[in-house]
C-alpha cells in the first residue's frame, strides 16, 4: 500500500498532467586507412622471399602457427618443436606450450595446437581445416590451419564480401568490429560488439542529427526536430506562439511550448527537442510531459547543440535544467530520453521537488547526465522504468532513486553510473535506492556514501544503500561497489535473497557469498568525489590498501567497453576488471 507521502506526490503529478488525445577502445591490430570507405582495414605481416612465414627460423603466422615439426617461440620465430606426442601413425603431432600472463585468460593466448597440414589451393574456408576445427577454418599460404589472421590482408573480403573484416579476438571474418564500423550505415549504424554485426542504434552518438530511440533501436526522424532557445520573446530570440515556431530561426522560448507543438494535433512519437545556445541570465526551468492516452508509448528526446564534459553542464543556461519544484515530470505512456544535461532542484522544503518524476507505462533514460541537490528523490518512479547510463544522482535530501511500483512493476537499469551521498529526512525516508515490486539490473556501477536513517537501534530502519520492501524486489547486481555512509544505518542492503550479487565489493555480511566484503569506512577510502557531478573515481593513492584491491570484477561480452568517463576497459571475455564505474588510469 502506498504511503501518504507517495499519494501526495501522485496527486502533485496529476495536477501537472493533462490526459492528451544515443568511444571506442584502442585498436587491437595495426590499421591503415581505406580510401574507398574512409574506414580502417586490418593489415597483416606478409612473407619474405628470404624467409617464408612458417619455416624454420622464420616468423610464425599471425595465428601463432608454424610448419610441421616446428613450434612458435615467445619471440614469434619458428623453432624445432619441444614436445611431440605419438599416435598410431607415428610422431606427427606437435604441441606448443603457452604461458597465461596475469590478467589474461587462456583464450587470450595463441597456441599452435596440432600443426595441421592443408592445401591453400583447395579454397577458403578449407574443408580439411573445418573437419578438424570449425573455429580454425582457413588455410595459410604456409599450409597451416588457423583463424582469419592467417589470411592475407584482403582474405576475409575475398571469402565473404559481407564479412570483410578479420576479428582478431576470435579469428572470424565479420561485418564490423568496434574499431572498424565502416559498413554500419543507414538503418544499421552501430556495430554490436557481442556478435560483430551491424544493427540499429543503441547510443545517441549513432544518430548525430537527432537521437536514438534506444528501445526501438531506431534513429529519431530528421523531419521531427523542434528547436528551443531559453529566453524571453521580447528579446526576439525565441517565440511563444504555438504552433508557429519550433524551427531553428524561430525556436520556442522553453521546452514546454515545444512539447505543446508536438502534441498540437494529438500525441505522436519521434520528436527531438534540440536546445540552442542562449545568452539568457537564468537556467532553463522545469519541463512537464503530459500523460497521453495511446496504445504504445510515444518517444521524445531532449538533446542540445554542442558536446560538453559533465562537470561543465551546470555552467550553461541551455544544458542546466533547474526548478524549485519537480524539474522534469514524465506522464503515463511516454519514453523520455535525456542526453547530456544537469538537473538541479533548489527547493529546501518541498518533498515533491524531485529531479525526475514519472508515471506508469513510461520509461526514462538518463545518459551522460547528473541530478543533484533535490529535496525529494533524485528520481521518483510510479511504475516507470529507469535507465541510467554514465550518469549520477548526487546529494538528494532523500532517496537517490525511489521505485514506488506496488501497483505496476518497474525496473531500474544502471550501467557505468553512480548513486552517491544521498541523505534522509526523518519523515520522508532516504538512502541510495528504495524499491518495491521492482527488478534491479546494475552492472559496473557505484552506490556509495548514502544514508537512510540516523537511529541505529531502529529495527524498522531502511537499508542505507538499498532498501527493498518485503520480498518484492529481484534482479542482479554485479561488478559493482556498494558502501554506505560512515556511521550510517546498521544495515547497508536490506533485501531478501531474490536480489543477487556477483563479483561486487560491498559492506553487507548477508550478501558476501561470491563477493568481497569490507567495512564501508574502508570501501569509501578507495574513491574520490567529483563535488559537481557526484561521480566517485578511484583514488590513485588511498590512505589504506591499494587500488588494485578493486580488481574483482569479471568482464564478459556485452559489458561496457569503456568506463564512466570513456576510458577503455579490459574488454576481454572473462578477464578481470575494476569494480564500479571507473577504471584506473594509465
Low-confidence stretches: 17-49, 83-113
* Class based on secondary structure composition and strand pairing: mainly beta
Largest sheet: 10 strands, parallel
Alpha carbon gap, first and last residue: 51 Å
Helix proportion? under 10%
Question: What is the subunit organization of this protein?
Answer: single chain
State Rg: 28 Å
Approximate strand percentage: 25-35%
The number of helices is 5
Number of strands: 45
Shape estimate: globular
Walk across the major sheet and give the strand order: 15-16-18-21-24-27-30-35-38-41
Mean pLDDT: 84
Describe this structure in words.
Residues 17-49 and 83-113 have low confidence and may be disordered. The protein has 5 helices and 45 strands. It starts with a helix and ends in a 9-residue tail after the last strand. By secondary structure, it is mainly beta.
List its traits.
586 residues, mainly beta, 10-stranded parallel β-sheet, 9-stranded parallel β-sheet, 5 helices, 45 strands, globular
Describe the structure in brief.
By secondary structure, this protein is mostly beta strands.
Blueprint (SSEs and pairs):
Blueprint: H1 4-16, E1 31-33, E2 40-42, E3 70-72, E4 78-80, E5 84-87, E6 90-94, H2 127-132, E7 138-139, E8 145-146, H3 155-159, E9 165-167, E10 172-174, E11 190-192, E12 197-199, E13 212-213, E14 218-219, E15 225-228, H4 255-262, E16 271-275, E17 287-289, E18 298-304, E19 320-323, E20 328-330, E21 334-339, E22 342-345, E23 356-358, E24 362-367, E25 370-372, E26 379-381, E27 384-389, E28 392-394, E29 401-404, E30 410-415, E31 418-420, E32 424-425, E33 429-430, E34 433-436, E35 438-443, E36 446-448, E37 466-468, E38 473-478, E39 481-483, E40 493-494, E41 499-502, E42 505-506, E43 516-517, H5 520-524, E44 553-555, E45 575-577
Parallel strand pairs: 15-16, 16-18, 17-20, 18-21, 19-22, 20-23, 21-24, 22-25, 23-26, 24-27, 25-28, 26-29, 27-30, 28-31, 29-34, 30-35, 31-36, 34-37, 35-38, 36-39, 37-40, 38-41, 39-42, 42-43
Antiparallel strand pairs: 1-2, 3-4, 5-6, 7-8, 9-10, 11-12, 13-14, 32-33, 44-45
Amino acid at each position: 500500500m502506498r504511503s501518504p507521502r507517495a499519494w501526495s506526490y501522485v496527486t502533485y503529478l496529476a495536477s501537472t498532467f493533462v490526459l492528451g488525445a544515443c568511444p571506442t577502445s584502442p585498436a587491437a591490430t595495426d590499421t591503415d586507412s581505406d580510401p574507398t570507405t574512409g574506414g580502417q582495414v586490418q593489415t597483416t605481416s606478409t612473407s619474405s622471399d628470404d624467409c617464408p612465414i612458417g619455416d624454420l627460423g622464420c616468423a610464425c603466422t599471425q595465428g601463432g602457427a608454424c610448419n610441421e615439426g616446428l613450434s612458435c617461440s615467445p619471440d614469434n620465430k619458428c623453432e624445432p618443436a619441444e614436445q611431440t606426442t605419438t599416435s598410431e601413425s607415428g610422431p606427427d603431432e606437435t604441441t606448443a606450450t603457452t604461458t597465461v600472463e596475469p590478467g589474461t585468460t587462456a583464450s587470450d593466448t595463441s597456441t599452435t595446437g596440432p600443426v595441421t597440414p592443408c592445401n591453400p589451393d583447395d579454397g577458403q574456408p578449407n574443408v580439411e581445416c573445418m573437419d578438424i576445427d570449425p573455429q580454425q577454418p582457413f588455410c595459410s599460404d604456409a599450409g597451416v590451419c588457423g583463424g582469419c589472421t592467417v589470411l592475407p590482408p584482403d582474405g576475409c573480403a575475398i571469402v565473404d564480401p559481407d564479412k570483410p573484416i578479420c576479428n582478431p579476438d576470435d579469428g572470424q571474418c565479420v561485418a564490423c568490429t568496434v574499431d572498424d564500423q565502416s559498413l554500419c550505415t543507414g538503418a544499421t549504424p552501430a556495430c554490436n560488439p557481442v556478435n560483430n554485426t551491424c544493427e540499429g542504434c543503441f547510443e545517441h552518438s549513432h544518430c548525430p542529427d537527432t537521437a536514438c530511440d534506444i528501445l526501438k533501436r531506431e534513429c529519431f526522424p530528421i523531419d521531427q526536430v523542434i528547436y528551443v532557445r531559453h529566453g524571453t520573446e521580447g528579446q526576439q530570440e525565441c517565440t511563444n506562439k504555438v504552433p508557429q515556431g519550433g524551427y531553428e530561426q524561430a525556436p520556442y522560448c522553453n521546452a514546454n511550448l515545444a512539447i505543446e507543438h508536438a502534441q498540437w494535433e494529438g500525441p505522436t512519437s519521434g520528436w527531438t527537442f534540440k536546445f540552442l545556445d542562449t545568452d539568457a541570465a537564468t537556467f532553463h526551468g522545469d519541463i512537464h510531459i503530459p500523460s497521453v492516452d495511446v496504445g504504445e508509448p510515444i518517444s521524445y528526446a531532449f538533446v542540445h547543440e554542442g558536446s560538453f564534459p559533465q562537470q561543465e553542464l551546470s555552467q550553461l543556461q541551455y544544458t542546466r535544467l533547474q526548478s524549485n519544484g519537480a524539474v522534469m515530470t514524465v506522464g503515463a505512456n511516454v519514453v523520455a530520453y535525456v542526453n547530456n544535461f544537469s538537473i538541479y532542484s533548489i527547493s529546501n522544503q518541498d518533498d515533491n521537488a524531485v529531479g525526475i518524476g514519472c508515471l506508469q507505462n513510461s520509461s526514462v533514460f538518463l545518459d551522460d547526465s547528473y541530478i543533484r541537490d533535490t529535496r525529494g528523490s533524485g528520481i521518483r518512479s510510479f511504475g516507470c522504468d529507469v535507465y541510467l547510463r554514465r550518469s549520477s544522482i548526487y546529494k538528494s535530501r532523500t532517496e537517490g532513486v525511489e521505485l514506488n511500483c506496488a501497483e505496476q512493476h518497474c525496473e531500474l537499469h544502471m550501467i557505468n553510473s553512480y548513486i552517491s551521498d544521498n541523505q534522509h529526512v526523518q519523515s520522508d525516508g532516504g538512502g541510495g535506492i528504495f524499491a518495491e515490486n521492482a527488478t534491479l539490473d546494475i552492472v559496473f556501477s557505484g552506490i556509495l556514501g548514502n544514508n537512510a536513517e540516523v537511529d541505529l537501534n531502529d529495527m524498522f530502519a531502511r537499508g542505507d544503500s538499498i532498501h527493498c520492501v518485503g520480498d518484492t524486489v529481484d534482479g542482479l547486481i554485479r561488478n559493482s561497489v556498494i558502501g554506505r555512509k560512515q556511521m550510517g544505518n546498521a544495515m547497508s542492503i536490506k533485501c531478501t535473497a531474490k536480489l543477487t550479487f556477483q563479483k561486487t565489493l560491498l559492506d553487507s555480511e548477508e550478501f558476501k557469498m561470491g563477493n568481497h566484503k569490507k567495512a564501508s569506512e574502508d570501501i569509501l577510502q578507495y574513491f574520490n568525489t567529483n563535488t559537481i557531478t557526484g561521480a566517485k573515481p578511484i583514488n590513485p593513492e588511498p590512505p589504506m590498501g591499494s587500488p588494485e584491491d578493486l580488481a574483482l570484477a569479471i568482464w564478459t561480452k556485452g559489458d561496457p567497453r569503456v568506463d564512466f568517463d570513456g576510458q577503455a576497459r579490459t574488454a576481454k571475455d572473462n578477464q578481470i576488471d575494476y569494480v564500479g564505474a571507473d577504471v584506473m588510469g594509465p
